[in-house]
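Changelog note: in this version the structure field was regenerated for every chain. One regenerated record is shown below for reference.
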Amino acid sequence: MHIVSALFVENFEMREAPGPSTRLDLTGAMFSMAAPSPAPVTIAPHLVALIYCPADETGNGVFEVVYRPTIRPEGEPGDDTEPLARNVSPFQVEPGKFTYRLVRGELEFPDYGQVFAHCRVGTGPWVSVPFTLLPPVPPA
């Protein structure tokens, strides 16, 4: 199995289409956001990953996400520091089909800056998705 796409979104919905087929409506795809209040602050952005299972595989997998403040060139989770958050969830998908995993990591930001959501299926390659927390926008 492998990750087709992973990104942070504001909203995620599924709907049926003729076929039968499924449509995924992703809105508010983002790689940054203004903090809701001054740092330190805790936020919980939604990360959605789309995963494909080839027809010749079993359809059983484990999706892992590790949030870290750094990234290595090969995409593996950064350094030896404690992860900011981690999520591991088993899943099943029909061989030859797609599935999704939706993860809402609770991230504590002592200051504004960047974190990386390092994602993988099983022991497969890591996919790293950056997220930057910006200072709050002053009221107009």
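Spot check on this record: The first strand starts at residue 2 and ends at 9. The domain at 2-134 is CATH 2.60.40.10 (Immunoglobulin-like).
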